[in-house]
Amino acid sequence: MLVPSLAGLFVVSVYPTLFLLRSCFYQMDLTGLEGSFVGLDHFRRIASDALLWKALANTAVITAIAVSLELVLGLGAALAVHGSTGSPRASLGKTMFRNILIMPMVLPPIAVAIVWRLMYDTNYGVINGFLSYFGLGPVPWLSDPALAVVSLILTDAWQWTPFMFLVLLAGLTALPEEPYEAAMIDGASAWQQFRDLTLPLLRPVILVAVLIRMMDCLRLFDTVYVLTRGGPGNATETISYFIYRTAYENFDLGYAAAVSFLTLFLTLFLSKLFLMILGIKERREPEDVRP
Amino acid sequence: MNPKTSGRSFIWRAASLALLAAAILAVCFPLYWLLITSVKFRADQMTFPPVWIPARWTLGSFHEAFVVKGFGAYFVNSLVYAGCSTFLSVALGSLAGYSLARFKFPGQLEPKISFWILSTRMFPPVVSLIPLYFLIRKINLLDTPAALIALYAVFNLPFVVWMTRSFFKEIPVDLEEAAMVDGLTRFQAFGRVTLRLAAPGLAATAILCFIASFNEFIFALTLTTLKAVTLPVGIAGFVTQYKVMWGEMAAAGLVAAVPVVVFSLLAGRHMVKGLTMGAVKG
Amino acid sequence: MKLAALFLTTSLVAAAQNLSAARALTVAINAGVEGDGLKAAAARYQKLTGTEIQISEFPYNNLYSKILLGLSGSPSPFDVVMIDDPWFPKLAEQYLLEDLTPYYKQKKLDGPDSDFVPASRALGRFPYGKGRLHALPFVGNCKMFFYRKDILKKYGFDAPKTWFEVVDFSKKIMAKEPSLYGYAMRGEKGNPIVVNFLPVLWAFGGDLLDQDGKIVLNSAQAIEALKFYVGPLKSVAPKGVENFNADQVASLQLQGQLLMATNWPAWIATFNDPNQSKVVGKMEFGSLPGAQKPGRSVIGNWLVGVARNSDQKARAFEFIHWLTGKEEQRINALETGNPPTRVSVYNDKELLRKNPHYPAQLKALSSSKPRPRTPRWMEIENVLGIHLSQALIGQVTPEQALGAAEVAISQILTRGR
Question: E-assigned strands of C174-326?
């Protein structure tokens, strides 16, 4: 029963790894497999490729800022909603709120990026149109290198803060009530309760949410493809876009393979971390359900 | 009243309500803009100052996208691929999940296999893009539904295996054994007892698979040419060399949003559990 | 097992579909006005000859890779492809396009007739101008200078003859008309900024590759040109040009907010359409300004070729031969406004009446210059586009940008396959 699944997964993980391992040392064209052996040339090129390192740095910066922003906003909203529970009316409101928030994250990222590109337009976008009522702008959202990164992050935050919110809210709801009752008897303030109880208790959930979002951010492609195509210059080029551009715009397959290999290596580290945390949870589960 | 919240003042609650209202506005406005752009005339799409509420409406963009450009076919493609791949991955994945949850494996093999399956989920898609492109080209499946259906099914497998494994673990094995004592085979017991109990979770899992496949972009972009094109790829294609066809993109984007939004609302509560691979319960 | 069975059945279905579709000619076109022209022509051809034609439309950004990958498959999914001329050398070098000379021989002809504009006809041969014939010119695009003659006249100016005048006129007019911008470049990285910058580079006496295909980009002239481009020229441009493509440039000019721009003649019809344009009758379309050297336009023709791996090459050739013929070129120009590739069509009375700018367009086309005819052009353009864009946003100096681009391009040229 396991075999079909394992075979399928083998094809999409082990086979690509082996393929890349070989391709790294060849100069190849997208039109055919035949290439010439170039030894370590690609790795030498990686070492001196400023565009590649910028793409890696961009990916790291976008991931770090976007995930932190989503965490702060998501946690704030989760606390606010959690605080307003109680009456049946509030719980109906909560369900509606949840349903609204689900929408951004299930929409096709392509459709999301298109709306935002339309709204960001320097001369005719609705954001600058709004700002102009206050005598501000026009703000070159997508054509200034720093702002383009900000715009990309804002779009990502719009789509994925709801994810943080839902996960953290679920975590909050599952927290035990006893410690809070005890804290109240001790006369702890709301802030003290948050700092000393909520945060530590919520830590595992926060970690899971952050890690999932980090993995997603490292793959960022669709939004970049529509919003900026990595521009202006290479200000918003992520590693995924770099690989796509190298392989499908430059047809420089061998080099793209080498960069893919590097990327695989980097993500391996992060996934180990993720698995470790899930592994800890797994071990806590009662064993008696197993035959 | 909830003991965690008492002691907070009225002002605090008012502030948090205001915050929530702002959040709802921030979430809804781009959706509104998508909707409104799809029914605006081109002259009203890109103007300064912006047209907040158009005085004239048109379905021209929908007509252009779905009748003239044939986006209906792309939409059908997307639905079919997402549907077929979901069926495949839930069918195969739950079998694997069941065997991992129930059968004895020698040594520490079971957690090892489970974690290996989960680890393939971490594989960045763009990394396998080039190898899979060559593989699919070699077996002559470029630009075919089969290629995308098979790929999407496999991409979702780790998720399905991991989720179903946890569902099946939660269902006491005694129930199955009791059914088998009553004369059912193991397979019948699985079908009539375990599967039935796990059904809501399975449905939510299937919905998340569907959404992921329906929205997938980079593989659809590189592995299709003409016949097998999906809706997201078609939408991105409206950025032509000279003109960006905002109205048509918005119209197609809106239609693309319908199935995923409907399905996600059906999944409701189970979304959280699914989105975190079962690490957080909703 | 199940998966394999699914593979099998679905691929069988796909194969069956392929077979049934083999009767029709499949043509890959770009999504846009040139592609629309071909689509309309295909419908006429179908009516005329009964040959069924299936059109596959791709966005410009994906068309090249789809064509390249499609043509290298066997059988090719396309019989006829529409090619932007800088893509041509790569396709011809790899022999992915059919050599057309034998088909002309069958018709007792040497090759394409001399009515084609020489600059356009030369594009279809590899090596450039004299080698094997692999494609015919279908749309005679070349960059033109779009300007507001009414406003220039109001302030006593003629069409600018040099890029310095472009800046000078812009500054003087912008001081009086605060809602106007002087010149907008297509600043988006990649193809747009490269094509937009090349005429400036050439006017300043710089170039990319020399006669022998060696890189000569990082010259004093080129640095001066790029300094001018990101300095004075950008100073009269609207905010946000760093990610402008033709769409944004044309939108501004159609709304009457932009004095001058370089753009493709395909836009001219839009400028004359009162439904889309606020500047009907106020525009003039001419040749590009110069500087130290006279202005030369970048040629950007759309070619049509036959897939070498097609199984119906003879029918495919008949179609493109008809498509680039005199009568069809005339009808296409009349109906879609696409620039023709034949001298006789530019001199057609009816067309001249509708397009008073045709003599200027023919002149620009005849004196135009192609992008370097190297199979590695797409890679060069990709990397050059990033470095130029970095200079435009001020992240690096013009010297740094050209220095880095020269290194990257020479690596591309020396790198093996």
Answer: 181-184, 258-263, 283-286, 302-306
Is B118 part of the contact surface with chain A (CB cutoff 8 Å)? yes
Residue type, C218: N
The string of pLDDT tens digits covering residues A122-135 is: 888 899 999 999 98
Whether C110 and chain B come into contact, CB under 8 Å, resolves to no
Q: Please, which residues have CB within 8 angstroms of residue C406's CB and are 6 or more apart in sequence?
A: C215, C217, C218
Q: What value does the CA radius of gyration of chain A take, rounded to a whole number of Å? A: 23
How many domains, in total, are found in chain A?
A: 1
What single DSSP character describes residue C245?
-
Structure confidence at residue B259 as a pLDDT band (50, 70, 90): very high
Report yes or no on A8 lying in a domain.
no
3-state secondary structure (DSSP) of residue A121: coil
Q: At what angle do helices A3-23 and C2-21 cross, to 10 degrees?
A: 60
Q: Is the dihedral of CA A61, B24, B233, C385 positive or negative?
A: negative
User: Cβ separation of A140 and C94 shorter than 8 Å?
Assistant: no
CA C178 – CA A175 distance, rounded (Å): 61
Is residue C101 scored above 90 in pLDDT?
A: yes
Write down the pLDDT at residue A88.
61
CATH number of the domain located at residue range(s) B62-275 in this protein = 1.10.3720.10
Note whether C88 and C134 are within 8 A (CB).
yes
* Binary contact (A81, B253; C-beta < 8 A): no
Closest to C187 in 3D by CA, of C368, C390, C29, C2: C390
Domain range for A42? 35-282
User: Where residue A205 sits, what CATH number does that domain have?
Assistant: 1.10.3720.10
- Measured CA to CA, the distance from residue A85 to residue A164 in angstroms comes to 19
Residue A141 lies in a domain: yes
C108 φψ region: left (φ > 0), alpha (ψ -120 to 50), beta (else): left
C283: three-class secondary structure by DSSP: strand
Chain B residues with beta carbon closer than 8 angstroms to that of C77: 143, 225-226
B27 in reach of chain A (CB within 8 A): yes
Q: Which of A190, A198, A192, A194 is nearest to A173 (CA)?
A: A198
Q: Which of A278-282, B79-83, C136-140, C393-397 has the lowest mean pLDDT?
A: A278-282
Contact A251 C190 (CB under 8 A): no
Does B123 touch chain A if contact means CB atoms closer than 8 Å?
yes
| pLDDT (tens digit per residue) in A190-237 | 888 888 888 888 888 888 888 888 888 888 999 999 999 998 989 999
A222 lies in some domain: yes
Query: In DSSP terms, which residues pair with C145 in a beta bridge?
Result: C262, C286
- Write the residue in C10, C17, C31 that is nearest to B240 by C-beta: C31
| CA distance linking residue A35 with residue A29, whole number of Å | 7
Listed by number, the residues of chain B in 161-200 with a beta carbon closer than 8 Å to a beta carbon of chain C are none
Q: Convert the pLDDT of each residue in B236-250 to its tens digit.
A: 887 766 777 888 999
Per mean pLDDT, which of A166-175, B114-123, C106-115 is the most reliable?
C106-115
Using CB atoms within 10 Å of the CB of residue A46, give its burial: 0 to 12 exposed, 13 to 18 middle, 19+ buried.
Answer: middle
Q: What is the DSSP letter of A34?
A: E
CA distance C414 to C417: 9
Would you kindly state where each structural domain of chain B is located, as residue ranges?
10-60, 62-275
Helices B195-215, B71-102: axis angle to 10 degrees equals: 140
How remote is the C-alpha of B83 from its chain's centroid? 11
Domains and CATH numbers, chain C: 15-141+300-366 (3.40.190.10), 144-298+376-414 (3.40.190.10)
Q: Is A48 part of any domain?
A: yes
Worst-scoring range by mean pLDDT, B41-50, B53-62, B149-158, C186-195?
A: B41-50
Two tokens, residue C18:
């392929």
Best interface-test mutation with B: which of C62, C80, C85, C263 has the largest number of B CBs within 10 A? C62
Q: Inspect the interface and report whether the beta carbons of B236 and C59 lie closer than 8 Å.
A: yes
